[in-house]
Amino acid sequence: MRAFWCFLALVLAAAPTLGEANDSLPFPLDPETKTVRFQEVVLVEGVSANDLMARARTWVALAYKSAPDVTKLDDQSKLIIKGLYHVAGKTVFAGEFNFNHTLTIDVKDGRFRYTMSDFVLTNPPGVARFEFPLEQYQAKSVKYKGLRDTLTRGKVEADALIASLKKAMQSPTPSDEEW
Predict the structure, then answer these.
(1) What is the pTM of this model?
(2) 22 CB-near residues (< 8 Å, 6+ apart)
(3) Which long-range contacts (CB under 8 A, 24 or more apart) does 48-54 make?
């Protein structure tokens, strides 16, 4: 029953913004699968696959709170991360929203490919629990401005995470002798 009242409060709070025209998802949609997905192949001239994987592992250790907890696969050519990042919400339920995601990093000599996908938005603790794939936001054409703003900030954070990965993969990992 509590969840019903929280849902009702959310709908009533959204009423003033339901007529707004901009209801598109700020995240990129894969044209074939219609799912949210960032993907790019990045060239790193003259760097071996082993060195690129070492750089990726170092980046994961610095970018996520607990690398062992988020790392789901770690082999010679592929790293799969199940992580999340937080965004402050601007909805009737203020607090941090979690953007859960999967990040896959594939490496080959001279290049790497990242794929960031499987985004699920969850609300802050302490309120009626919800979670939904970001594609669901698009499919339902939710026009609640506070949620749209939260999603836009989530896209900015995803872009920042990807930019930091690309920068780390371009920079040599210091060896034990270089300290």
Answers:
(1) 0.78
(2) 143, 148
(3) 48/109, 49/76, 49/77, 49/107, 49/108, 49/109, 50/76, 51/172, 51/173, 52/107, 52/108, 52/111, 52/112, 52/169, 53/77, 53/79, 53/107, 54/173
The residue assigned the tokens 């799912």 is 35
**169, 52 Cβ separation under 8 angstroms:** yes
Length reported for the chain: 179
Q: Which of 4-18, 56-70, 132-146 has the lowest mean pLDDT?
A: 4-18
Percentage of the chain lying above the pLDDT 70 cut = 71
What is d(CA 157, CA 91) in angstroms, rounded to the nearest whole number? 18
- Tens digits of per-residue pLDDT, 107-143? 999 999 999 999 998 876 666 677 888 887 765 555 5
Other CB atoms closer than 10 Å to residue 157's CB: what's the count?
13
Which domains are delineated in the chain?
A: 31-173 (3.30.530.80)
Confidence (pLDDT) at 107: 97
User: Using CA atoms, how far apart are residues 125 and 99, in angstroms rounded to an integer?
Assistant: 14
